[in-house]
Amino acid sequence: MRKIALLTSGGDAPGMNACIRAIVLTSLRYGLEVYGYRHGFNGLLEQEYLNLRAKNVANIIQRGGTILNSARCLTFKSDDAAKVAAKNLDILGIEALLVIGGDGSFRGAKHLANHWSGQVIGLPGTIDNDVDGTDATIGYYTAIETALDSIDKVRDTADAFERIFLIEVMGRHAGFIGLNAAIASAADHIMLPEISRSCDDELENILAHIEAVKKRRGNTSYIVVVTENLWPDGVTSLAQILTEKTQIECRPVILGYVQRGGSPVSQDRVLATKLGAFAVEAALEGKTGVMVGEINQEIVCTELENSWLQKKPLDPYLVKIQQDLFDILKRP
Ligand SMILES: Nc1ncnc2c1ncn2[C@@H]1O[C@H](COP(=O)(O)OP(=O)(O)OP(=O)(O)O)[C@@H](O)[C@H]1O
Ligand SMILES: O=P(O)(O)OC[C@H]1O[C@](O)(CO)[C@@H](O)[C@@H]1O
Fold first, then answer.
1. Whether residue 103 lies in the annotated active site
2. What secondary structure does DSSP assign to 294-330, as a single string?
3. What main location does UniProt list (predicted)?
4. Interface pTM (ipTM) of the complex?
5. Which of 97, 110, 223, 308 pairs as cysteine with 103 (C-beta 3.0–4.6 A)?
6. How far is the CA of 264 from the centre of ligand 1 (A)?
């Protein structure tokens, strides 16, 4: 193999730059030329690429975002687009393409593989951690830290005013950030897609809990962590309902895109470096159609489809203890 390429796709995640760095340096160490396509799959269609050298990846390990830019390229779903991408990769003489992104990006990688004879390897990079075949995705740990830092700050003002706060975290349809940030911030309640019930049941449950906690602690702050896309019309509408029903001031906080930015924590940098180096070695061994991930501290390859076919479960023990802690909080 002489030429390898990479791209970042879907939502950017802290640690993507660390991963790009590891891929570039490992490729150079093995004597490969390495190319970075810009703006996700758009770069393949538009022939927007650059030859990456060691100097391009100096001083980027600590930076959030991605130096290659990212994108959601909806046109890439068509067969014609995949054929154009395949042709462009062949023109440049690329033999293996590494795709850093989430499950959508891996569907894109698989789609390309159906039309291209080169090797395709995925690396999990998304804050949502909703990718099977790896314990954690690159960016996930930083997103938890960012959410936690904000929730701690909200707790201060919530305490001062003895208010209820609903804090919406990202995750698309997965509760990994929500569960971990809630546990670490000692939130009083969580609403996650994996354990959600009907809106009526959720409301009844939360009102009963607030009432019980108030009886036990008197007027107090009360923090609820809610995963995005869960409550119809979002946390602002739920905050209005709770204010009316409890007669306690309830404020919504949508954490939003801050969770995607910032300098990656060490766990994300280390994971990104390990997976980046391993992906290049896997490419050199001829692997294709797989995603590299880490399970129980071992780096493993998973068929690309298996990264999305099953919904990755939350840690059931963490869910259990969070529920137990809620119950203890409301005991007299
Ligand atoms: N079925 C598909 N076929 C071809 N390409 C796809 C397919 N699904 C997704 N893609 C490509 O992958 C890109 C990224 O997918 P998506 O927007 O789902 O983000 P993701 O990789 O899951 O990351 P995140 O969840 O962190 O945002 C899409 O914009 C598109 O270019
Ligand atoms: O940047 P966009 O396209 O608004 O996407 C937001 C989505 O991307 C993610 O941040 C994942 O990257 C999700 O948590 C969120 O639902």
1. no
2. EETTEEEEEEGGGGTSSPPPP-HHHHHHHHHHHHHHH
3. cytoplasm
4. 0.99
5. 308
6. 22
The per-residue pLDDT for range 122-173, each reduced to its tens digit, is: 999 999 999 999 999 999 999 999 999 999 999 999 999 999 999 999 999 9
Q: 């701690």: which residue's tokens? A: 152
Locus of tokens 């975290």: 169
pLDDT digits (tens, 9 = 90+) for 192-249: 999 989 999 999 999 999 999 898 888 889 999 999 999 999 999 999 999 999 999 9
Question: Considering only CA atoms, which residue is closest to atom 12 of ligand 2?
Answer: 11
All structural domains of the chain, each given as residue ranges with its CATH number in brackets, are: 3-139+264-309 (3.40.50.450), 141-260 (3.40.50.460)
Ligand 2: nearest atom to the Cα of 259: 10
